[in-house]
Amino acid sequence: MAFKKIQEQLKEALEKQGIKEPLPFQKAILSKLKGGSSVFGIAPDGAGKTTSIIISTLQKLNCAAFEEAPRALIFVKDKEAALALQSEFERFTRRMDLRIYPVYEEHNFEAQKNEIFEGVDIVIATPKRLNKIFYLNGINLGKLKLFIVDDAEFLSKPSPFSDVIRIPESLDRCQYAIFSTKFDSRMERMQDLFMANAQIVEVGE
């Protein structure tokens, strides 16, 4: 079954990448994300989690830039993961004017603040650096529509987990999506803290 009710520009981008039909996990989760539900997306590697993140984000942002403040925040493990996800996004956004910006410790802090201030749509960040920028008023999350964690296994460590769960405390209305290979105690804690109404979408091996 082909992708249903998605932006024409996004549909064309998928076709250019040779993606014509959703994988089982994508079929299960994309309609929920499109409908505005917060979700835990649990599936093995290769199930299409990263592509689900890209499709749902581009759909939510109407494939177009808007104002200065970011509308999507995606947490990742480290610099390598941030740059890899940015590269994946750019495969789909070549004909779009969306501004995708990676944030990680190895880059100059003041330069990151200035570049964010100039205007971004999607921020792909490590938790530690994003928190530092946020608490020094270097990023406005008041327009945020999507809060995503990719490959959330790295949240098993206390420090990144603490950095991630601090941000929702400052958000009013936002859609949350946590992607991982398993639903564990950290997921249960997030469920208690800010994802009480989230649905669990799980596809096995």
Automatic annotation (TrEMBL):
The keyword Transferase does not apply. Residues 30-201 form the Helicase ATP-binding domain. Coiled coil: none annotated. GO terms for molecular function: ATP binding; hydrolase activity; nucleic acid binding; RNA helicase activity. Keywords: ATP-binding, Helicase, Hydrolase, Nucleotide-binding. GO terms for cellular component: cytosol. This is RAD3-like DEAD/DEAH box helicase. It comes from Arenibacter echinorum.
